[in-house]
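=== RUN LOG ===
request id: a7f3
mode: sequence -> structure
chains: 1
length: 1009
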Amino acid sequence: MQTWAKRGLQTAFVTGGLLMLGTGIASAQENVDPDAAPPAVDVAASVPLKADQNKLATPVKELTVPKVDRTISTDRVTSAVPTRTATPVANPLIRQAGERLQGTALQNLVRGNTVQAHVDVPINICGNSIAVLANGEAAGECTQETHRDGTIVTDGAGQALAGNVVAVNHILPIQITGNAIAAGGNSATNTNASQVSTTGGDITTNGDQGAISGNVVAEQGATPVQITGNAVGAAGIAEANSVADTFASSEGDVATSGKNSSISGNAVPIPLAPLFEVNGNSAAGAGNAATDSVQTGTAYAGGKTDTNGDPATLAGNVVAPALAGPITVDDNAAAAGGNAAAISDTSNWSDAGGHIHTDGRGSTASGNVAGVPISLPVAAGGNGASVVGNALTDHANEATSNAGGDVYTLGDKSVLSGNIADVPPASAVDVCGNGATLAGQATGTCDNDVDSETGGYQGTTGNDSVLSGNLAQTPLAAPAEVYGLAAAAGGQAYGSADETKDVRSSGQPNTQDDNGTVSSNVVTAPTAVAAQVFAVTAGLVGNTTSDTSNDTSVTAGEAPKAYGKKSSASGNIVQVPTSTPAQVFADGATLVGNNKTAGDNATDMKAGGDALTTGEQGSIAGNVISAPVATGTQVLGWSVGGGSNVDSVATNDLDSVAGGDVNSNGDKGSVSGNLIAAQPAALPAVPGNTVSAAGITTSDVVTDTNVVSGGDSYSKADDASVSGNLIHVPATVVAGVYADAIAAAGNATTATDKVSNTEAGGDMFTEGSGPLSAREMTVPVEAVANLRRIPVEVLGQAITTGTSDDSQLTGEDTGTLRASQLKGLELPKGVDGLLKANEIPAFHGIDSIKGIDQLPVNTLPNPADLAAMAGQLPTPALPGVAQERSALPINGGTAGITPNVQGLPLGQVLDAAQGLLPALPAERSLPAVPSLPVTAPALPVQLPALPTERSLPALPLDGPASLSGLNLNPTQGLAPAAGERSLPQLPVAAPAMTLIDPAHLFETVTGSL
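=== RESULT ===
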């Protein structure tokens, strides 16, 4: 059997390697000249294999599997005698052919173009034990190291079809160590293993002043696979104690250039760095299995990318996909009629790609960047499941995943250049710390710390350009998780998780433009979403318990900036940020049994940020369309039981914010600096409900939520046209079914303390001058519907307690009033600048009113004329007018004033005028007029009353209206009602109202639905 195993391994690897990869056989001792020119084609693959200290136990005997240490490759085939792993080199046949071309007329055929494909699969098999109807034990100290250099240096400058590179540098190490398998026997391992595998290198070329030159397509992959520290017991006992570490890298920067070229200097780096792991798992079938493991993994791929397309055509562009993230199935326990336990500690790091820099100035379709960095850590760990058995886990996981990096480009004085398109999803998928059993016992415990990030700062320019320097991005930050759950049917289950998570997608988009056309615009749609289910328990004739905490931060995108000064259709921003948590936690439901769950949640979510732009002296520039959406969807603290005892305890702190403040400028612009915004914020609140049927259920919830959509808006537009306008539609919807209790032949109790803040939009401020500029319009929408603290009792007891402190803000808190609060006609703000201090408006066409020409205007009344108007004046009196202007001109004294002029409270006037010097009228008094006769006849009619609130004056007068020095200005001294805007003080001699520009009739239009 020993001979069969030895020959089988040799045959499989040798035959498989030759069939898949096969060309060329070279001596292991072959020398390589480091100064030789790189070959035009270099294709090589290798499988360095190392197997040692593995045991196989049978009823006959315990065998030590033969040691193997060799490399099978297209580079060389080593002898059958195990040797030290040799470093792979380039295929000698291809290399020799390339060398023979040097110094010949044929060497110019390749022109520095290079094709390189290196794939290496190091395999380390060590310290494994397999026992079949016998006892076996393995102990191993294992290391493996491999390296292949993939550095490329070539040049295609000043040539056509030269210096292009196609490269694949991929390392795929496989580590299979420290596993124990027992079938009808006992198997044990104790292993410490390490594997280090590297490949790649910098790629440097040049396509300056060339045509289709200096382009690079490079796959850089580091994808390690770990299968370590697992134990499987089938009618036997398996124990695995393992320490395993894997390091893999395919790193290298890409540098090229396409200056003064055509279709040159373009780069497509493809860094891939996912890890694949199956470690520390325990499975028992009618037996026992136990693991105690520590595993670490690291994968690095790619690096910086630097190129140039200044000035050029179709040059210096970059397309950069990237993938990072450990994908692990670690430290789970499963038992069927047996016992399984898994205790472990896992730590992984994955990094793919890096910063990107290019330049498209003075070019056409150059210096553009398209990025698709993906960060996707996936983990299933610390879960316990049993069927008529016992399963126990205690798992700690730490994962860091980064894909992509900052992006910088320039598109000045160009056409279709310096643009950026970015699709950078970041996620984290976890199934962790769950326990599930069927007629058994299961415990899942997990401590999970994950950091997942994609992309970074996005910066470009489009000065003096056309269709350049634009930026479009769709950041997505979306963890999706199930952890700390417990489910039991006829058994007992426990789930516990302590979760810390930070998921971030992309960075700030920033673009600048002066004197551009359709340039430096930003379109961004950042999305933050958290689909999380944790601390949820369910039982059917069973007992379940969960104790779980969550601390999650989710960030998608950042504050966009754009500049479009002196430009056309430039510097505009369109943003649609959404923040939408979807969380279900601390809920329990049991039918016959006992259930306890406790969940502590702290979640901070942010999509987008403040938007800043300018369109000064521009046309269709510096405008913002903003549509942020924020919600706070959560189902927490529910307790539902039938014939059972169910307790639910939840604490919750949620911040969900979309968008932010918006600031724009349209000075001296046309259709610039405008803001159009729809800002919905919704809070569907359903915490702390409890239902009991022939049982006892309790719910204890403390929740604090903050949901904010949008923010304040600022704009200005001096000397502009159709600019600096603000249009808002803020909307808040708050609906809740919470703190309710239903009891049917049982007891249901809920205590819910709820605090919430829901905001949409904010203050609006604009200023400026010009046709249809600096206007505001807001249409706020609010809806509230709550069904709360309602006890429902059917032969039971239902108790609801708690507090609520809820705030709801839609649009401006103070300032612009809604249409339902406005009364009458609001005069335009510009009136103040058109009238003098001693003028009031005159009304076009008012002279057609019968008898209006007989009113005293700028002269003393003629009693005979007033007598003819008896019965025509519409109102009886002017109460209180004298109180506004009590300082009367006293020319000639007061003795001649008769106190019984009808309708005038002259007694009060006389008292106020005593003691004043005749020649010193009070400040701002009207010009002096001769004193009234000693005995003036009574007015035949009553003077009109003051106009109604906020209405225009009933007496349209063309000049100063006075009667014996009494001010008859119908609006002087009127105070606005509470909550109303103040009307401008009407002066007392106005130009005709026909001079008022109808375009300024309304400065503010508001309304509500």
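=== NOTES ===
Residues 19 and 863 are 125 Å apart (CA to CA).
The first strand starts at residue 41 and ends at 52.
=== END ===
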